[in-house]
Model the fold of this input.
Amino acid sequence: MNGVVISGAGLHPFGRFDGVSTTDMGVHAVRAALREAGVGKGGFQAAFCGTAYGGVATGHKILSRLGMTGMPIVDVEAGCASGGAALMLAAGAIRAGQYDTVLVFGAEKMPKGIIRSSFFEPWQEEAGLAATPAFFGLRAHRLALTSGVTKEHLAQVVVKNRRHGAANPDAMYQKEVSRDEVLASRVVCEPLHLFMLCSPNEGAAAVVLTRQGAPATGAPLRVTLAGAVLRSHLPGAVLSESTPLSGLTDDTVPSPTTLAATAAFEEAGLGPQDIDVAECQDTDAARELLSYEEIGLCRPGGSAALLESGATSLGGRLPVNPSGGLLSKGEPLGASALGQVVELVRQLRGECGPRQVEGARAALSHTVGRGANAGVVILTR
Done:
């Protein structure tokens, strides 16, 4: 992805905001990103908007409010990876020479409760063959068998991420929790307790992509977009986001996350050993641990050991989710991946205060959602 830089980033906090519309939040994030990049009306040639629940022409509504229309505005839906998909498309257009500057943003106002998706047929939902806490619980049980993950490890992920999130003013939950508090929260589906599951919520995020070498404006330190990849599932896995509890029992089929990470590392000319900080999908605590293995941050089966080593905590060798992750921030689907990117841009600039990863030069974000769509983004400075 050489030749593309992020020249501006903006965020509307994640949480619940009564009386604030999806458009309101999108406008807030877009304005912040454009201001930071020094880009005004007519300063970008295309826009891509990530959203899953926003409805028809979400991107158009946001940019109409700003009086910034006329260019192509494309809404992109890829579940939790919607923002990552939008970023990949925008970067590809710049690399192809089609545009010099592109706006990428995501906004979402999620319904409360368990996320439902039209991806699954009604009979699948009724039979439990959808991505629900039952699926997450079974995935956690499988990690217990393959990686030695225990309920204590799951609680440790929550404690870590909520500790990180306490230093993030844009997170929904900004209070640390103890292991005992996590394990005292009610069981949703064994082995997962309530605090081990993220909260669907509301928020928005935006970045401005610019062709490398384009005239600099008042933007701060620019961050290079070294890789941006989206991959879908291959048929064959029983416990996957695409076909939970159905399909073939072939453990040799690589996950969409592994496919995306492999391609992103190749695109960036880097490997897992080069990453200094990461934001990984933690829809539930077990999902973060699985991400370590699928991305290649540790060997297969080594996620529990990596967590126990302290490497993934702030101050460790490879901090994961210094923003607090979804377990602290919550997850507004269309904004989720771009929210990770905004955090990592700020990390690479050294702007994150008490949650700053010192000396970070390479960062990775990872999201995976219905489809199953997996997005991996690599940033460098």
Residues 333-349 form the longest helix (17 residues).
